Amino acid sequence: MKRQTSISGNLVQLCRFLRRKGFSLSAADESNALSALKLIPIKKESNFRMCLKSIFPKSKYQQERFDEYYNEFWFQLAKAVDSKVKKVPEKKQTPAQKKEAQFDSIKKWLNLEGSTEEKEIAAPSAIELLSKKHFEELSEEELRLMMQLLRKMAKKITHTKSRLRQKSKKQKTLDLKRTMQFNLRKGKDVQRFIFSENKNKKLKLVLLCDVSKSMDLYSRFFIHLIYAFQNSYDKISTFVFSTALHEVTEILNNHEFEQAFEMISDRVPQWSGGTSIGSCFQDFVKDFGYQKLDKKTVVLILSDGWDTGKPAVMKSAMQQIYKQTKKIIWLNPLAGNENFSPEALGLKTALPYVDVLASAHNLESLKLAMNQIGRRRSLQPNNQYLEMN
Amino acid sequence: MQLPSLDQIQGLLNKQGYISEEFIAMSLFLSMQLEKPLLIEGPAGVGKTEIAKVLAKILDTELIRLQCYEGLDSSHALYEWNYQHQLLYLKMLDESNTSLKEKEANIFSEKFLLKRPILDAISREKNVVLLIDEIDRADEEFESFLLEVLSDWQITIPEIGTYIAKSKPHIILTGNRTRELSEALRRRCLYLWIDYPSFEKELAIVQTKVPNIDQNLGKEICLFMKALREMRLEKTPGVSEAIDWATALVNMNIDHLDKKIVEDTLGVVLKDWQDMKHTQDSLDELLLKTGVSKKM
Question: Cα–Cα distance between B246 and B222 in angstroms, integer?
Answer without folding.
Answer: 9
